[in-house]
């Protein structure tokens, strides 16, 4: 059976993007940087989460942000208040960041700073539950957010995002008393898609679950540091 032109084009695009993502990851590995790709639908709380994360973890790690948005730098400006490098990428009509866009951000980071000084790069992707999950950007881990206001069915309706996630944050937990939403059902639906994902209920407003999230980030960075030490010992 022959593929349609559109199907073949889609496969070629994903293949080319993957090659670029692998190249980006090589840069991150060379510099000793861990990269997270942070994804969600619009309004789920990505930027609020990153604000809370930067407020705490910049005391422990050197962090930079690559901020994706379709047209503005509003979110980038929010994060610049935490005195970290924030490289804004406007995607125009594209509903996601791809590896080529992030490559441009990486080269800007390398031009303006010493990249080997950084421990973590946070890529805040464009708000969308579909496209970002399909296009790797060179990340070492995918972090997905799902807000309580989105309901229980999203993991079943948009499975790829949840299948690919290494960590899922259920956000806006402070709204739970006011919503007819079953958190346990959300968890069960996510587990249908991905039995191994770490699930952390959080509220950027009250602080619920944030320390658990910070510990997860620390664990990823500690693991990366251990791997780098082992590789350097071998060589």
UniProtKB/TrEMBL annotation:
The gene is hypB. Residues 37-200 form the CobW/HypB/UreG nucleotide-binding domain. It holds the Pfam family cobW. GO terms for biological process: protein maturation. One of its GO terms (molecular function) is GTPase activity. The keyword Hydrolase applies. The keyword GTP-binding applies. It comes from the Bacteria. NCBIfam families: hypB. This is Hydrogenase nickel incorporation protein HypB.
